[in-house]
Amino acid sequence: MIELADIRRAAERLRGHILDTPCVESRTLSELTGCQIWLKFENLQFTASFKERGACNKLATLAEAPDPPAGVIAMSAGNHAQGVAYHAQRLGFRAVIVMPRFTPGVKVERTRGFGAEVVLHGDTLDEARAHALGLAQDQGLAFVHPYDDDAVIAGQGTVALEMFQAVPDLQTVVVSVGGGGLIGGMAAALKALSPTIEVIGVQALRFPTMYNAVKHTHLPVGQSSIAEGIAVGTPGERTRRLVERWVDDIELVDEGDIEQAIVMLLEIEKTLVEGAGAAGLAALLKHPERFRGRKVGLVLCGGNIDPLLLAAIIERGMVRAGRLARVRVSARDVPGSLARITATVASAGANITEVHHQRAFTMLAAQNVEIELVIQTRNRAHIDAVLQALHQDGFQAQQL
What we know:
Layout: H1 4-14, E1 23-26, H2 27-33, E2 36-41, H3 51-64, E3 71-75, H4 79-91, E4 94-99, H5 105-113, E5 117-120, H6 125-139, E6 142-143, H7 150-166, E7 172-176, H8 181-193, E8 198-204, H9 209-215, H10 237-246, E9 249-253, H11 255-268, H12 275-286, H13 288-291, E10 295-300, H14 307-320, E11 324-332, H15 337-347, E12 351-358, E13 368-376, H16 380-392, E14 396-399
Helix pairs in contact: 1-7, 3-4, 3-7, 4-5, 7-8, 8-10, 11-12, 11-14
């Protein structure tokens, strides 16, 4: 089991090779959640993820060995892959990365861009891991586990050293949990530096594997999550022991919570995070009473997200916030009806982005038409104002 001394040695090894990322207060998020929030921007690392730390520390220890391997191999859904590929290229190692087939294309291409040989295999990390272990045996490559490795865990734990140096009076640190490398290393460091600090893990409700392991529950595990970076089927053995010893609790958040947190960080902090990176804020939004009044540190652990997924999350976030709405209006099917409807919506201050006439698939009289509008609004109260304006002008209208 790693200790603070291991993490400090890792920090020395990483000096000059990774970024000491900013850890700054978010006044707006603090006001919204009722606690004082400090954000650790690990999404600003060169490969946009904390995973660089563990990968670099592991590869550096391999390079220091008397008989270093000719190459390394790893399995990853993306962030660990990029970290291994980038630092293998820097240190002169051949790198082979096995990635599940569902991995977002942006992560695959970035990994290839760092000179790694990418092998797409399996639908889960466990299937990718089994294939990677076989290739390691066949080709004599050193396997670099994404989380269940002491050198990797120690590297990830350096995040805690930087946070503690920046804000030594933090009361709670909230960390997303997949395989457990980040929270395991951070908790070991934080509890040694300040035994009273509270360390809270966050998992996606669809992948509560560490939660099940340490709480001895049997919550079902899903097939996918927008937080694919923490969608891990099997937590590590080393990391599980660290979590059991040092982590105070684990919270679960659902997909909608994570989506909301991604949009809030983008709008308020002007920073892009992936699902795993937003899980900590999602927990604060879902359980505000637990953190109210406390000085809380959040790790924005990664920023690699597929652009199409991000676009969908933003649009869904606008719907939830009442800034995008779908409205059905019933009207006489005569010239000028649509013009009157659009004029009414415009006078109410909303913008129409889509219009669809429905004549055949409706129970209205043959002389009538249903018109579905997608409108941009300011908030939910504005939607109600638009509907009221349509009613006052003689139209039947409802939000869908």
